[in-house]
Amino acid sequence: MVTPGLKKRYIDVYLPSEEAKHEWEEDATKAGLPMSKFVFEAVEAFRAAKDETPRSEIVKELAESKEEVQKLRTELKIKTMLLEKMDAEVYKARYASFQEVEMGEGTRHHDQELIKILQRDKALEGYSILKELAIDPRETEAVKLVNNQLESLRRFGLVEETAKGWKWIK
Q1: Per the CB 3.0–4.6 Å rule, which of 74, 127, 143, 167 could disulfide with 123?
Q2: What is the DSSP code string of the chain?
Q3: Taking a C-beta distance cutoff of 8 angstroms, is the pair 168, 121 a contact?
Q4: CB within 8 Å of 167: residues ≥ 6 apart
Q5: Closest CA relative to residue 12, chosen from 39, 47, 50, 48
Q6: Is 161 left (phi over 0), alpha (psi -120 to 50) or beta?
Q7: Is residue 24 within 8 Å of residue 38, measured between CB atoms?
Q8: What is the pLDDT of residues 34-65, one digit of tens each?
Q9: CA–CA separation, 160 vs 148, rounded Å?
Q10: Could you tell me the pTM of the whole model?
Q11: What's the average pLDDT block by block, 10 residues per block, for the chain (170 residues)?
């Protein structure tokens, strides 16, 4: 019998079988809840799930997002390659005066970044220098300009080429 004060909150639920009732009771016991609280929580969870985006829409959005990410990665890769190529072109233009190691008339300016790299107190082999200058080793003209600058610095007595690579002379 239901107490009179709870009559307005009371409902009867008929399950399809006794087995279903026993399963619900076992689930409620496992959850550590009385049956009324267990049923209430299950119904509330169902109601909250209705407000959520259906799984099929989430899967569709995920697939679209993955496709967009792949497209953006490809685009970024292309733009990165173009940027590297443009950086190499700028480097070649900036240090074109080093086409030859021997200098004709006039002055020329060495790459300050190259000098900073060499002054770090350790010998660096050519590939490491190119990597730090962000020069692709396949850019033969830019590599030649760096080598000619190194040779020019060597002739001025500022660097030496050791077995471990190029090193600034203190």
Answers
A1: 167
A2: ---GGGGGG------S-HHHHHHHHHHHHHHT--HHHHHHHHHHHHHHHHHSPPHHHHHHHHHHHHHHHHHHHHHHHHHHHHHHHHHHHHHHHHTGGGSSSS--SS-----HHHHHHHTTSS-B-HHHHHHHTT--TT-HHHHHHHHHHHHHHHHTTSEEEETTEEEE--
A3: yes
A4: 118, 122, 123, 124, 159, 160, 161
A5: 39
A6: beta
A7: yes
A8: 998 999 998 888 888 776 777 788 899 999 99
A9: 13
A10: 0.55
A11: 78 88 93 91 83 81 96 96 90 86 71 91 89 89 92 90 89
The Cα–Cα gap between 159 and 114 comes to 11
Kindly give, in sequence order, each residue whose CB lies less than 8 Å from that of residue 100, ignoring residues fewer than 6 positions away: 148
Q: What is the rounded distance in angstroms from the CA atom of residue 123 to the CA atom of residue 161?
A: 8
Confidence at residue 105, expressed as pLDDT on a 0 to 100 scale: 61
Tokens 């959520």 appear where? 52
Alpha-carbon Rg for the chain in angstroms: 37
d(CA 64, CA 60) in angstroms, rounded, equals 6
